[in-house]
Amino acid sequence: MKIGMIAPIWYPIPPTGYGGIEMIVSLLTEGLINKGHEVTLFAAAESVTKAKLVSSFKTAPSAQIGEVYPDLINAMTAYTYNGDFDIIHDHSGIIGPAIGAFYERPVLHTLHGPATPEAKRFYGLLGNRVYLNAISEYQRESFGNVNIIDTVYNAIDLSKYSFSDEKDDYLLFLGRMNPEKGAHLAVEIANKLGKRLILVAKMVEPAEKRYFKEQVEPLIKDNTEVWGEIDSRTKAELFRNAKCTLFPIQWPEPFGLVMIESLAAGTPVVAMRNGAVPEVVVDGETGFIVDDIDQMIEAVKKVDEIVPKTCRAYVEDHFSTTTMVNHYEATYELVQSLAEKKLAMRAVS
Q1: Which long-range contacts (CB under 8 A, 24 or more apart) does 187-192 make?
Q2: Closest by alpha carbon to 96, among 42, 22, 51?
Q3: What architecture is the 2-155+320-348 domain classified under in CATH?
Q4: From CA 224, how far away is CA 215, in angstroms rounded?
Q5: Is the pLDDT of residue 349 over 80?
Q6: What is the pLDDT of residues 247-303, one digit of tens each?
Q7: For the chain, which residues make up each domain, given as ranges?
Q8: Homologous superfamily assigned to 158-318
């Protein structure tokens, strides 16, 4: 197939630091090429890929994240490109599918965000002009009556995460520095347990810095180390050696890549019951799912009960790159079939 792949424009593909969606786009793009597909990737100019790379900016406009024009220009570049694509797979924000609704060829848009009232209204207005896929059953159910045709779980490159069943005695938190991710709760838990905590967080936007200063920093004691963004190798080492990974989310997370990254290294996850967590963590087998801070503290005390090899095997079985790429191939075929039926119905009417 000839596939046009639209990535978010803000960071290179693959990301050198923060960038969950960017990592998924990279794994999918390279996996499809390895299977013989022809992929044109619309992404930041610094991206490294075997695909044909088309970029609308000389450097990734990371400092402009959230602004309209970079996202708009990247999407317009893709949808006006003379690529004769069989399908366009759009991973951008809402601007991409809004334009894609008027594109003559089939468009699949992956829902990477939460089902807010505004998002549900927007995707509902698209009708069946754009095909959607969810990244978890929780997310799919949350969006309700929109044109979601499949659920395809995210994945990781298992070769990047070395396994170990010998752990150091520190807790790990990794995520954006904001209240939804619960960094303040991770610090509180470590303080109450008297455990060492390594807090790795993206903290570049004003709101992230403000949250850290007001809600996280006042709680920090000598047992907590605050790290900024790190490279993939350092991240893998932290996951491999951690006693467990804390995932105290305070919002309905649609997936949660941090959890499978941790499990791939054989490190159990202790997570709040929210969003797609029950689809990623098997309670009592690959970690613990809890309902409040007190339960999370008690769960951390029991993480030695979790067998590291079970964590790794679970990711191998459910969240490998091969599984994701194969599933997306099948979804593309479904999109083409549905698009052909839609054209046939129009011809008859």
Answers
A1: 187/216, 187/219, 187/220, 187/224, 188/219, 188/293, 189/246, 189/248, 189/293, 189/296, 189/297, 189/300, 190/223, 190/224, 191/219, 191/221, 191/223, 191/224, 192/297
A2: 42
A3: 3-Layer(aba) Sandwich (3.40)
A4: 15
A5: no
A6: 999 999 999 999 999 999 999 999 999 999 999 999 999 999 999 999 999 999 999
A7: 2-155+320-348, 158-318
A8: Glycogen Phosphorylase B; (3.40.50.2000)
